[in-house]
Amino acid sequence: MRAKSRWLALLLVLGLVLAACGGDSGTETEGDDTTTTTAAPSGDDETTTTEATGDEPMEVATDFGVDLDAGLIRVGMLSDLTGPFGPLVSAIVAGAQAYWDDVNANGGIEGLEVELVVRDTVYVVDTHIQFYNEIKDDVVALGHSTGSPHTVALNADLQADGMLAIPLTWYSGWSDSAINSNLLSHGQPYCIEAQNTIGYISDEVLGGASTIAIASLPGDYGQDSAAGAKIAAEALGLEIVYDGEAAIIPTDESAITSVANGIASSGADIAWVATTPGTFSAIFGQALAAGYQGIWSGPSPSYSPAYVAPDSPIKDAIAASFIGGTYTAGWTTEGAEAFHGILEAAGLPLSDYYFEGIVEAKILEAALRQAFANGDMTRQGVLDAAKSLENVDFGGIAPSESYVGADNDRLQRQGYIYAPDPEGLAAGTSGGRIDLETNYTHEIAANYEFTGACYTLAG
Amino acid sequence: MRGRPLLYTSYEADQSMLNTTTKKVLLGLFLGFLVFLPFTGGAKSSGSRLFDFSIPIVGFLSSNDYLQLLATVCVFAIGALGLNLLTGVAGQVSLGHSFFMGVGAYTAVWLGAPQGPLLGMGLPIWIWLPAAGLVPAIIGVIVGPVAVRVRGLYLAIVTVGLVFIGEYVFRNWRSLTGGSQAGRSFQELDVRLWKEETPLIEISQNGDFLSTNGKGFLMLLGFLVLFTVIAKNLQRSRAGRAFQAIRDRDVAAEIMGVNEFRYKLIAFGISSFLAGVSGALLTAFLGRTIPERWDLILAVQFIAIILIGGAGTVSGTLMGAAFVVMLPRVVQNFTEWMKSAIDEGGFIATIADPIVVTSPTDGGIINTLPGVGPGLSVLQANQVLYGLLIVGFLIFEPLGLYGIWLRIRNYWKGWPFTY
Amino acid sequence: MTAAIPIIAQVAGGEGHFASALSEGLSLGAIYALLAMGFVIIFKATQVLNFAHGALSALGAFLVASFATLVNIPGRFLPETVPHWLGWSLSALFALIAAAAAGMLLERVFIRPMVGEELFAVAIVTLGIDIALRNVTNDFIGTDPRPLGDPWGTKVLDLGWITFAHTEIAQIVVSVVLVSAVALFFRSRTGIAMRATAFDQEAARAQGINVGRIFSISWAIGAVLAAVAGVFISVFPRRSAGVDTATAFFAFKALPAIILGGLDSVIGAIVGGFGIGIAEAFVGEFVTFPALGFGFAGIVPYLVMLLVLIVRPYGLFGTEEIRRV
Fold first, then answer.
1. Which positions 70-99 of A are in contact with B (Cβ < 8 Å)?
2. ipTM (interface pTM)
3. Among A67, A279, A345, B53, which is most buried by a count of CB atoms within 10 Å?
4. Pick the CATH number of A11-188+332-410 from 1.10.1130.10, 3.40.50.1980, 3.40.50.2300, 3.30.457.10
């Protein structure tokens, strides 16, 4: 026992020493070492190190993240891959990777290949900041940053470093130019999404509703969405018979139960619940057991195709009563077929969530191309190029975005409305979603005067 | 004295913390290196440094990113010293360390954050930092009597309860903490005399000789050295001996005249003080956090630190803190290295291939693809390794890393007569 | 005191509230009781406080989901005429056997080498096991919840004044069956051997009892109880979409139950479990002052626990520890 443990101890130490030496990030301060990234293009792209074409203007300025000699552009992704929004974000990042693989195979950004540097933040702010500091000297921009408080925490650093970030949150505050100097948001904000979807349900599905129940997680996501729901309620003349804004605590059984009971006993026509899939199913199930029979709805993160999986007990109930809103196309949306090829080539299983990643990638692509054309691919240069983009087109998978102009004018007011699709999911032809409306704007959202975030993140 | 380093001729010499010349020299060199480190680097790193060159081999530690990691190690080490005292020396198992860290952090922000929509009084660091230690200490002393009534595992469960109750309070006290998921920003580590515009010592901005992370690291290193000296001193004081007596045989200790109740309260108080200071420094350094940060997982991390390092020893605690905080980075680098080794082919590739997953159809244990893929994500692999290390250390090497160090040292001390 | 009046009025006037609190309390209580029983049986036999219980419950639920839906054993071998509920019960049985095997494996590999070490050290070993096992299980579960494919689905029994979901009725029935089974087990030869081991390991060994085997059996039973609790956490209506990565954290709530009941009493575990469940449900339903914010009912178990520790540290049914030098 003694000798065994001694050998084990020595082995452990050797292993640690090996591991610490093995990472060649020892030369990280040089910034462009090719050995320090986690992402790699999938198999077939390994041989395509595209040569820089002869006629590219050699006076492109660079500082971090762009290596003209090696023909590489590095983009950072601070994503929640295994935390509360894991399923969603994993698919988004995979979609982005598939898109960049395709871009790289077709000449890249003027001959420069784009490489993703991905870090899993598990939705923890400390980790987010730590990873930002780890990768910031390696990358020219952040193609993805999950979480509003996380992105807000980075804002000061982003401004100091002149770094661009694309937040993966639809917080309405990102449309406010007072906050978003380094951020490129896209897609209808939660606030608008609630207005569009509730408006649609009330007009088209119910032909005029009279009561609504609202429940949400605390924080930017939940409460921004709840704020939008309340705006919609007021504009449509709906009575709010249950107000559970910020009442959903994911780790607390009884909080979830009391929200479910509250919704059930209110008997509202519409129940708008902004939360994560795990808690949504719990609330749905418990309210159903208590006899609730209204229409359920919520922002995109509340829905998961797992609800209508063949073995799911709530499959039929969800299919009959859920209508959702979202920001980008799904697998079966018209216009999305153009991208099926890229995704299948990357070996990805069928899902609705890749297109959000492709949208993010396309915004960055437009910014990078513009920056190259401007001759300035420093971080600040890429940021400036991005902020000059007007009418970025997404090839049919999302409404176009613009980053020039007054906040109220460029705020994205178009979205998608969908219903669950259990048959398609079981048959393997859809991702569990079938579109009811694309590029849809309801009157309320069209008339809404944007003067700042619907819900202000204090502090 | 040269030939007989273990011959002590006075009580002071016997009890001294650095009892051999070797220890003094090595410690001096090590500290000197750590202090010198943030001044080097320069060139590409963000922020200018005093020296442009990079120390060979270990120079990568001077990059901003590693300096932040080292600063985090210092903060975690301070907290771990407290837990080591309570659990390792006094034998009182506590899984509630994160609760006291949270209390410290929020005390600090209440006193130190600039006035605004959330609670904050804008007071300088020399007020909020001690208060961040005192308030949790007082709470620790209040909770103490409940904890003292029960021993061992009961105590562990009570402290778990504290963490959950604390989380509830933090989540709901929105004016202080910013509320669930949203959190709030914290004040900087700048040293001011009293609320003036330009601080006396500015940590939050890059300077001419040091980057902001470098300055933060040096400041936290200073605190760590201070608390290490205090902790080591405490262990060899009367109170320290009383703690060890309680840990080993509390009934016998009580009979001998050691007031068990009083010393347990003292242990709780000191441990909570250090936890509070650690929490306040962590949040001030990182700038922002959410109430969910102070959860059971963080408390378990501290237990892991003292166990992996070596419960009851100060050097072990420091080693454990460095190990646990750096582990995610090590695992990440290791995975990347294996991945690039697979790309290059060769002998290492054949070992690495079954471990690393490189495409959606490949098999393996650790997934390096961005997003969905088979195998554990780097983070999950981290956690699994972590859990297995805790188990491994407890089964094979109860004295942890310090125990391993002792074995190595004794091997070389007795070389070549090591049988 | 005046604050109590609204509560009393609600209780008196709102029958619906009382009924839903009661059904929620019973179903939650059954889950806590199962988890607490598992804890206590392992503790009684091996003196180990098993922090890995949560991971075991998630593993158990995942195994049921796998056997029933993913790999469909033995369903794929059975003829079409076998009703769904029978096929599912067989799958669940296979899964429980697998869970028991997992429990025994954990005990053999990680706990057996620690015999004779301090209790605290062994408890931390289980904590380490929890971290590792939880992450591996969560990786297998994946990012989307996995439904268990149970035969009760969303069916509900409406008695007018109170409604029970079929799953909740099943929970209560299964709990009663398991409690009786455990009670009977303790009267059997092996059960008496386990009680002897719990009382005094050395003396039991001297009597010829194979203590190692007793350890394995107790962990197997604990794992099975945890698995059953895991199944009930993951069905409609509690988590209708199935077992997901948060299931493993549920078990911490059972710790107050065993403190309330006493660490070494199985009856205490059951009483404690139901007590905590009902307390949490009723507080959640009736105590709703805005000043308390959200989630107060979630910490009620821990407050009860602190209260018990102040008043009666060894719980309702636990045996007081006598320490000698």
1. 77, 79, 81-82, 89-97
2. 0.84
3. A279
4. 3.40.50.2300
